[in-house]
Amino acid sequence: MVLEKLVCAILVNYNGVEDTRECVESLLASNYENLHIIIVDNASQKGRVEYDDIIRNEKCDILYMKQNIGFAGANNVGIRHALQYKPEYVLIINNDTVVEPNFLSPLINACNESSENGIATGKIYYFDERELIWFGGSYFDSKLCECKIDGIGKKEEERHNEKKYIPFATGCLWLIPVSVIQKVGLMSEDYFLYYEDADYCERIKKNGFRICYVPESVIYHKESRSTGKGSDLYHYYNTRNYLIFISKYCTKLQVIAMYFNKMIKTLKDVLRKRIKISVAAGAWSDFLGKKFGKKA
User: What sequence ranges are listed for the domain Glycosyltransferase 2-like (predicted)?
Assistant: First the structure.
C-alpha cells in the first residue's frame, strides 16, 4: 500500500456556514484519506463556523479572524497554519463547492508528473445546473490583456475534456505543491476581493511553473454568494483591481490602451446605470491614490 502524502485543504468562510459544512462533508467523503481541513472564518457576521458532527476537530482546524481580511489574506493565514503539519500539498478550495469523491488524486498525479507544474486545477460545473460548465479551462484575451474562463455558462465541448496547460486557474480550486509556495510566496493582499487569483497565476508563471488543467478532477460551484455580482462592492473591487492587475503585468503601451478602454467602458456603464458614479469614481480614485486592500 502506497502511503498517501498529506494534503491540507483551506476553506475561507464568510457568512456561509451551511455551504462550508456541505463542502467539508464532501471533502471528508472523498476517497483521499490523508486530508486535513483548515477553515478560516473571516469575521462572519451571520453565524460563525463551529465544530459539530460534520466539522470534527480531529479532521478540521477552525481559525477565527477578528476582522474580514479578504480572500487572499484569509488563505494566507490558512497556508501559514497548514505548514506546521508539513504537508506535501496545499488545496485552495472555495467553501461554496462540493467535490466528486475522486477529485483529488488526478490533481496530485498532475503535480507529480513534472516539477514545473505549479498549480493543478480541475473542471468545475455549476452546482444547481450540473450540465453547465463554470470553469473548463482558460484563454488569454488580448483585447482586455487578461485571461478569461473557457466555457462558462455553456454545455461542455470536447476541448473541456482535454488535459492541458492553461494561462489561468480560478482560485476556486488549486492544488499547489508546498515547494512551489515556498518559491513563489503567499498571495498578494493588494486586492482584498477579485483578481488575487489572476495575480498569483502570473507569479506562478513568472517563476517558471505551469498551470495544469485536469478535467478528470470534478467539483461543483454554487457561484459567488458572499458579495453578489452587480452589487456596489462587486463593481468597486472589479474595477479597481483590474486596474491594479494590468498595471503590474502589462507593458506600458498595453496599460495606456487598457486604461483608456476601461475608462470608456466605465463611463458607458455609469450612463446605462449599471454602476453608480460614486462607485466608479471611488474605484478609479483609490487606484490612482494607491489605496489598495480593503475598501476604506
Answer: 9-184
pTM of the model: 0.93
Maximum distance among all alpha carbons in the chain?
64
Q: How many residues make up the chain in this entry?
A: 296
> Residue 209 and residue 195: Cα distance in Å, rounded?
19
Domain ranges of the chain: 7-221, 232-288
Question: At residue 256, what are phi and psi to the nearest 5 degrees?
Answer: -60, -45
| DSSP per-residue codes, 119-175 | EEEEEEEESS-TTBEEES-EEEETTTTEEEESSTTSB--GGGGS-EEES---TTEEE
Give residue 209's identity as a one-letter amino acid code: F
Q: Dump pLDDT digits (tens) for 100-111.
A: 999 999 999 999
Residue 286 has pLDDT above 50, yes or no: yes
